[in-house]
Amino acid sequence: MNERINVFEVMAMKPHLLGQLSEVLIRVVEDGASIGFLPPLSEREAKEYWEQAMAPGVRLWVAEKNGLVAGTVQLHLAMKPNAEHRAEIAKLMVSPEARRCGIARMLMQTAEEAARRESRTLLVLDTREGDPSNALYRALGFIEAGKIPRYARSADGNLDGTVFYYKEISLSPRPGISDHAAGEYGAAGSVHWYPRSSEGERKMEHTVIWKRLDDTGMEYCTHTLGERTEIEGKVIRSKLGERSFVDYHVVCDAQGNTEEAVIRYIRQNNVQKMHLQKDADHRWTRDGVHLPEFDGLADIDIGATPSTNLLPIRRLRLGIGESRELTAVWVRFPEFDVMPLRQAYTRLGENEYEYRSFSGYTARLRTDAEGIIREYEGEWTERAW
What we know:
Elements: E1 5-9, H1 15-30, H2 43-53, E2 58-65, E3 68-77, E4 86-94, H3 103-117, E5 122-128, H4 133-139, E6 143-153, E7 159-168, H5 177-185, E8 189-195, E9 202-212, E10 217-225, E11 229-239, E12 242-252, E13 258-267, E14 270-278, E15 284-286, E16 289-290, E17 300-302, H6 310-316, E18 323-332, E19 337-349, E20 352-357, E21 362-367, E22 373-376, E23 380-382
Helix pairs in contact: 1-2
């Protein structure tokens, strides 16, 4: 049987995901895992845990096996000023029936790569002494720091010891990524084809690194293009001694209309989060509150990144010399609010566009054949890996 395993980051806890994660948590606790709970764990307790799991500084990934949740892991980013180089890997769990498929390793590698992109150079974790997870962590390069005896109670009533591990990581990409990108697709980015849907749909993943032309920031962004479009990015800015971070995840339907965006903004240690959704009737909400002034709008424009210019470019499919006006849901920074923004796109050449907002701002955009921004006049340029 050809098993499909897909790992993705959870940006919003939707009901179907809440139910499946709760089921996995109950199963692994019943199986004796030491993850902070004792059996029997009720469905209510499991759901309460997952409903509050996505706190500021927590990133959460899920592994699906043949379309069903089979495992999960979390990355807890230390938020204190003297600990911004550190993160903890927590709550790694794989459903008993899905083990020995490499899921735990995939989740760990995903969390480690995310920590690297968050500029975290020290990872820490702990696990029960004697559990099989010890062998996995050692195989992944984690070093034992020490043991604490009688640390946590198990289902049989015994107090078991816990082993603490650490791993120092570099901020350079994993070996082989840049070589693959330069050798096959050009030094400025990477492209990867992979199956994702149960129907076998193939999607193309483009990864781009942008640099601010004024040297105040960078972004690492992945565009997943297929019948649906997804964009995930992380923006780091440093201006006049003040650092800020933006990470976001945008999902579009088959017609290119934005369906959902989750955005997190960290500035001066203040963490803010915004969840924008559009329902089947094209009604927009922010964190569940209806925004009637945005109803019917197709595109989101996240002001901190050049990535979302891709969305109207791909959706409108303009001919050379053709122009089109639209109104976008504009996420402003540093205000971190939303406003309607009238704007227009004109296709100047095969891979060149003019962007104009009705606030008086104009810029030329250079794209690739897929519409991904390669250069944003006066603002961003693509950086070689």
